[in-house]
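Readers of this paper often ask what the protein records in our data store actually look like. Nothing more is needed to write down the fold, since each code stands for a local backbone conformation. Below, we set out a record of this kind in full and without editing:
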Amino acid sequence: MAKYKVMVVGMGKRGKHHASAFQANENFEVTGICDISSEMLDSAAETLGLTNVLKGSDAAAMAAEVKPDLFCFCTMPAIRYDLVKTAVDCGAKMVAFEKPVAENMNEAIKMKKLIDESGIKAVVSHQHRYGAHYQKVKEIAESGALGRINTVYATATGWMTHMMTHMLDYMGWYNGYSAPEWVMGQAAGKGKMNDNHPSPDYVTGIIQYANGVRGYVECGAGAPDQPEVQKWWGKNCIGVKGTEGFAEVLTNGGWRAVTKDGVQSGDGAMNYDLDMPPYIREMAEWLDDDSKVHQCRFGNAYMGFEAMMGILRSAANGGQVAMPLEAGPVELDLLKEKLSDAPVIPTPVNREEFLG
């Protein structure tokens, strides 16, 4: 394999995870790190042993100087399109960035056009899938042990902009990434609308997939507890059900299944030290070989994001929303305008986070 130059923008927790994982892979070399905070930049450089790489606060200027093969950014959701354009403009072969894809559907459509027309390879960080417990549920779903698959579902106590595209992506993965045909949604609570990951407090949706499978997703205050899991952010359940059983994964609680062969279960918990290396390795493989397309490619993430925006449009306007989506009013603005001011009714385990 070739050795690829990497520039990482954003030196928060996730940026440092990425920079460390790139440095640990023999096919990558971090040649530039960027953050608007000089304090965070210096701290990350020292912690990661990157004191000799180029550092700065202007991503576009740095990218023009570094000319990375891979441009990675780990920033808040408000900064997406401009950084993808920076990656394209500097001649990067690949751009990798954090979920969600965008803040609204208009931005996502514009971003997809840029990616498609430029030919840049794009990866979105839905990396939980590399956990052995996530992989086990995928293996069971594909084995035929569940009979005819008819339902995929997911719940997360974390709020929408943090967690929903994760949930939709793994639902899509377990369902072979069949395209959604329509969605319908409902939402409640404005408490998180001004968060740095702006979201309704609680949102739930139904997805009808082209292959006949039905999907159900819910995120936030009203989502159910997973009492087997202690870590609040790990109380996520993603499952697949068929005519002869079900299998589901808990982000920080292993996996379980009931099939015609009986009851099965196993351990597992999200672990960046285990999940990041294969996520990074697949980037090198795709850069080397066009046929080895990354599991977390932009096209899959875009499909889940589009479903999420459709659910918000339905929550705001009522009724079913047909896919694919066209440009329209900014979804969160529309929902904020139309959503009741009534406080959300949380599941007890979520009360402190959403009602204080």
Summary: Residues 257 and 264 are 5 Å apart (CA to CA). The first strand starts at residue 4 and ends at 9. Residues 4-127+274-297 form a domain with the Rossmann fold fold (CATH 3.40.50.720). The radius of gyration is 20 Å.
